[in-house]
Amino acid sequence: MNIFRIFGGRRRNFALTRIVSFSFGLLMASGMALVLFMSVKANFENTFSLLNDKAILTIQSMERQVRGHLDQVEDAATALKQLFDEGKMKPEPSDQTLADLSAAAAANGRISVIVIRDLRGNRFGIFKADNGKLWPFKEAADVPGRAPDSLPRLEPSSRPVWGQLVTHPTGVYANVTVPLLNDGETVGYLTAATSLASIGEAVKALDEGPDTTTFVVTSEGQVLVHSDQHLLITGAAPAKAPPASLEEFGDPVLSGIAAGQRYPTFQRAADLGIEVLGVEAADQEFIVMRVPVTGYSPEPWIIGQYFRATSVSREIQRVSGSALVGIAAIVIGVLIAVWLGRRVARPLRLLAAQSEHVGRLALDEVTPLPRSRVKEVDQVALAFNAMVIGLKAMNTYVPRSLFRKLMRIGLEQAALAREAELSILFTDIMGFTSLSESLTASETAAMLNEHFAILVAAVEEEGGTVDKFIGDGMMAFWGAPDARADHALAAARTAQKIGQAIMEQNRQRREKGLVPVRVRVGLHSGPVVVGNVGAQDRWNYTIVGDAVNVCERLQSLGREFAGTEDAIVLLSNATVRQLPEGACVERVGNQKLRGRSGDVEVWKLDLHGPVLAAQPAKGASAAE
Q: What range(s) does the Guanylate cyclase domain occupy (predicted)?
């Protein structure tokens, strides 16, 4: 018996040691694997999110440059038309008219030519040379950018019409024509033209160096603007200066776009109409970003930028390398944990108690394990504390409120994709690109962090779920994973709090001499699919559906009604109908939203009135 007890005791002690060793090793492996998984996942998502942001910001900046340039020409033509229609200027080649046209051309740096043509075909106007000198002309037959011989059909009520590009030995000119009226009858036509060379200078300024190229081509394949005039990124030289066809110009990357493959990882850019392609040329792979620009010629132009794909592969290799290092760290950590587990029997209870907090994601309740005089136990304590720090770092990237909701409701049930009626909120900073141009990268990040802190605080205060940050904007929703009948009211209260917080912040910024941060907010309620969306190895708890698009476009519509206000909130009628009676909203009217066939009734939320009462809305919910 004594021998049995001795061996039995040894077996029990040995078993306990192995259980403790295995359990502690498993805990270490699970914790480190979770941190590694979330870190690698966040790195991959951030990498491709930044690439999407680059595509969106770069192409949208180019598009704004081109449209801004041409819109100034159109605005000048419209302003001159008004002067002629009101009789303040005469459609005749008098010295006074030529002087007035000269003043208009000198005041607008975008205009190269202004031509007046009467109904008999007589022409006169102003030509501005590259050095800025103005040349008035009468009956000139070969003026650069002159009114085309075949004008587009224009009625007295016609808006400005952009014609075909005019090619001249001095360059290629885009031109816009308006009718000139006298007592409602057409008496002539005014054409304002701008040289594509000046547009090219604005586009070339967005070229980020020798590894990137910006371009503007027509839909027929004519190269209008190209930032590499002397040496292409592939190492060859252009065969001909723009304007030239793709074959004549000789850029293998542009010529290979037709055979390019779309990148599925740039879906966010694709949703905004920006096409991102992979093109092989000169034994290299390039990433091409492009978008069509319509409205300035009968056929659309294509503007874009391309760069070597190695810049993307380097980022992916860096993230993959960090994953391998993390896996190696897990293996080493597990081996050390098994060895140390033999000597942690006494502090096991304390470790188990703290691990329970970690399992519930109650990281704020975790008390760091105390240091020990025993080296091995001390190392375990340090490793556990480091794990908690890692989990807290992970929780920085994953909303803790969403985590807790999913855990409380049940991850499988809550994350299962289902249809539900929710209220959605979209925000965006007005003029963010121009606002950030004067800031360094760290200053821009600090400004965005402060801005998002205000938004997230308002959302979480009203029990909402922050879905994602999109550049300088944010998307949030109410009604999932926690179902609630007053989701529209909660969303409206959040928008009102955001607006009031932004106004207070801007008051302080103005006192400090800083530029205010102006915000657009869109609110819409409707049916969406909510739950896990993605692939087996990459899920995202989010919402999808037409209601999301309506909300985003309501936010975009805010630019037409913002005026000088620091914040504007536009609501759909579907949301307003679920608010209590007396809600502080003002009807804007039926509005046409981009990409939708019918009109949407839009309301504006009063941000200066009292905050909406926190009570469930009465009446049945409705969705548009």
A: 423-555
**Three-state secondary-structure class, residue 550:** helix
Q: What is the 3-state secondary structure (H, E, C) of 386-404?
A: HHHHHHHHHHHHCCHHHHH
HEC secondary structure over 189-206:
EEEEEEEHHHHHHHHHCC
CA–CA distance, 559 with 63 (Å, rounded to integer) = 17
DSSP letter string, 295-355: SSSSS-EEEEEEEETHHHHHHHHHHHHHHHHHHHHHHHHHHHHHHHHTT-STTHHHHHHHH
Q: Which of 600, 570, 563 is nearest to 585 (CA)?
A: 570
* Sheet arrangement for strand 301-308: 244-245, 222-226, 212-218, 301-308, 284-293, 275-281, 261-262
Reference 108, options 89, 140, 132, 91; nearest CA is: 132
Percent of the chain with pLDDT over 70: 76
Chain segment 596-611, per-residue pLDDT in tens = 888 899 999 998 876 6
Tens of pLDDT, residue by residue over 258-306, are 888 888 878 888 888 888 888 888 888 888 888 898 888 888 888 888 8
Q: Strands 519-535 and 567-572, how do they pair? A: parallel
Q: What is the mean pLDDT of residues 356-380?
A: 73
Asked if 337 contacts 24 with a C-beta cutoff of 8 angstroms, the reply is yes
Phi, psi of 593 (to 5 degrees): -95, 140
Cβ neighbours, 10 Å, residue 359: 11
pLDDT digit string (tens) for 556-569?
A: 999 999 888 999 99
Residue pair 353/347 in contact by the 8 Å Cβ criterion = no
Decide if pLDDT at 414 tops 50: yes
Residue 527: its pLDDT value, please?
95
* Helix, strand, coil percentages in the chain from 3-state DSSP, rounded to 5: 45, 25, 30
Listed ranges 56-70, 414-428, 460-474; the one with the highest mean pLDDT:
460-474
Q: What tokens appear for 92 in the block?
A: 């005749």
How many residues in total does the chain contain? Answer: 624
Q: By CB neighbour count within 10 A (0-12 exposed, 13-18 middle, 19+ buried), where does 279 fall? A: buried
* Nearest of 394, 469, 467 to residue 428 by alpha carbon: 469
Q: How confident is the model at residue 145 (pLDDT cuts 50, 70, 90)?
A: low
Task: Note whether 302 and 292 are within 8 A (CB).
Answer: yes
Cα–Cα distance, 70 to 196 (Å, whole number) = 10
pTM of the model: 0.44
Mean pLDDT across the stretch 582-596?
87
Chain centroid, CA 186 distance in Å:
45
For residues 28 and 383, the answer to whether their CB atoms sit within 8 Å is yes
The angle at the Cα of 77, spanning 74 to 81, to the nearest 5 degrees, equals 140
Partners of residue 181 on adjacent β-strands: 186
Scanning the structure block, which residue is given the tokens 């932004």?
Answer: 502
Please provide the average confidence, as pLDDT, over all residues in the chain.
80
The set of residues, in sequence order, having a beta carbon less than 8 Å from that of 154 and lying 6+ positions away, is: 161, 177, 178, 179, 186, 189
Taking phi over 0 as left and psi of -120 to 50 as alpha, with beta for the rest, 118 belongs to beta
Encoding tokens for residue 164? 């075909």
**How many whole angstroms separate alpha carbon 372 and alpha carbon 598?**
71
